[in-house]
Each structure stands twice: as C-alpha cells, then as structure tokens.
Amino acid sequence: TSRHLSNASVEEEKTLAMIKPDGLFSNHTDAIKKVILDSGFHIFEEMITQLNKDGASSFYAEHSSKSFFSSLIKYMTSGPVLVMVLEKENAIADWRNLIGPTDARKAKSTHPHSIRAMCGQDLEKNCVHGSDSLQSAPREISFFFGGTLSGTEATMHDEL
Ligand code: UDP
C-alpha cells in the first residue's frame, strides 16, 4: 500500500556518539541519554571502553599536527568513554546540533540548551563527541563496533 511505501522511504541514518571521560566522570550519562531518547534517537549499540594512546591518536588522526593534539590524547585516555551508535532520520546533523559548538564555554552563552553547555567545561573538555559527516560516521562506527575481523580494534581500546 502507499502507506507502507511512504514508511519505507524514510531513510534511517546512523552516527557515532561518545560521552568523553569528563562526561562519564561527572555522572552526566543519564541526563545525556534522556536527551538522546527524548530527541527521537534509537540507541542501536553501546559500549563502555577505554581508549589507549594508539586508539585515541588514530581516532583523532586528522588533528595530529595541531598544537592541542597531545593534550587531547591525554584527555581522551584519562578514563573510560561510553560510545553509542545512534539511529534516526538525519542522525548525523541532528546529533551535531544537539551537542552544540566545540567550545563548551562559548556554548553556554550561544547554545545554552546544548549538551556541551550542560556538561562541558571548555574548548577541550566538552564532554561529548559526534561524527561530523556522512564519511566520518561509518568510519567511526566501525572503529568501535567493527568487530575483530581486521584485528586492529583490539589494539586501540579495551571493552570494559
Ligand atoms: N579540541 C581542543 N582544542 C581545539 C579544538 C578542539 O582541545 O582548539 C578538542 C575538543 O575536545 C574537540 C576535539 O579536539 O572536541 C576534536 O576537535 P574538532 O575540531 O573535530 O571538534 P568537534 O568535531 O569535536 O566539535
């Protein structure tokens, strides 16, 4: 029927969301998950894991030449993270909009209802991550949830 056809045409999209070490440490997990579910996302998969130096460096490889890189790696390896695959129509852009701008301090004035305004501290410790494009989302999802086929994931992070 036409009703079934229109339902089938809705494109579900997946993105990688992460609660970074500061977000887990400060107990923001339940509040963040409430925002996720209230915003219509389905949590398709989730895992608590600990990035090691190689894993964090690989995940943020595009920033390896930046001045903030070593500090970023130290931050990202400072404790466990909660990674989630979120599913929804337009998930990538909608999750980026929900988390708000990179600088959590600025987010508090310009995007006061964003997740980074709620639980982030500054430009580095911004409590959450979201894939930024159709290219990065599948790459980041398989980084954490790709299984052990290639054997590389095991050297990047340890499931807790
Ligand atoms: N970051 C930082 N200093 C900067 C820019 C970024 O410490 O000047 C950190 C911050 O934790 C950010 C991450 O590096 O979330 C990745 O930066 P990106 O520009 O990709 O921001 P995002 O996509 O996370 O908003």
Automatic annotation (TrEMBL):
Enzyme Commission no: 2.7.4.6
Residues in coiled coil: none
Catalytic activity from the UniProt record: a 2'-deoxyribonucleoside 5'-diphosphate + ATP = a 2'-deoxyribonucleoside 5'-triphosphate + ADP; a ribonucleoside 5'-diphosphate + ATP = a ribonucleoside 5'-triphosphate + ADP
Domain (Nucleoside diphosphate kinase-like): residue spans on this chain: 12-151
Subcellular location: Cell projection, Cilium
Residue numbers annotated as active site: 129 (pros-phosphohistidine intermediate)
Top enzyme category: transferase
Pfam families, alphabetized: NDK
Superkingdom of source: Eukaryota
GO biological process, one term: GTP biosynthetic process
Keyword field contains Nucleotide-binding: yes
Positions of ATP binding: 20, 68, 96, 102, 116, 126
Keywords, in A-Z order: ATP-binding, Cell projection, Cytoplasm, Hydrolase, Kinase, Magnesium, Metal-binding, Nucleotide metabolism, Nucleotide-binding, Transferase
DNA-binding listed as a keyword: no
GO molecular function, one term: ATP binding
Family listed: Belongs to the NDK family.
Name of the featured protein: Nucleoside diphosphate kinase
